[in-house]
Amino acid sequence: MERAELLTLMDLNWMEMVREIARVTPGGWVVETEGLVMCGSPRGTIVANMAIVAGRVEVAAVRAATERCFRRVGLPFSVMTRDHADAALQAELARGGFREVELLTTPAMVFFAGGGTPPSPPPHVDIRSVVDDQGREAYARVMAEAYGVYGAPKTSILSHFAPLASVIGPTKQAFLAYRNGLPVAGAILYLSHGVGGVGWVGTLPSEFGRGYGSAVTWKVVTEGLGRGARFMNLQASPMGAPVYRRMGFTTPTHYRAFLPVD
User: Would 112 be classed as within a structural domain?
Assistant: First the structure.
């Protein structure tokens, strides 16, 4: 696959994952304008409420659109840019009332079939598909604890998993890793544009370092490739990136976040 096609498909799948999270969150919304995909919800944080640069756009247009969709109603947000397409805009944002947040710089990673080996499964772990509200509630609890490590309020994370549609759908499937019958880690497959997106990977903080996150991520990888995905696509957290590299993921690009200065 040519690099340009790969990057385009990565972007499209990432944006669709963000749209889908907003669509299934109570009160969530998606607004698309020339060069921007904006997604938000009432309890979203700067990580979930995003104005994603999707094409050519001027800083003034970014400022106006985010004012209408986020700031006017008091919602936090970030402007997400692509290293491979938005270098000039990144410099302009830095001069035009926005600041880059290094902590939110996201390695955009991919995995092709045959590109790695399965991680050694941890003992006493059973990975199950989420199929009902009981599983959805368990998934939400694990994610609330997992993302609390980064300072995300539990109420915000839980809001993204209110309906069953947040974890199950024609192009979506959540998985939970259970140890001795208790859920300890999870990840979700998001299929779009012939790509398998890996989202919402999280492990209970008390269970870090035991391989549960790797095991459930690998389950999403095999499920996505088994459903015909050309490759797997994810946006890594600071703690997750080294784990994914060991699994065989590579990093063709990065996504960078900008916040308004005032």
Answer: no
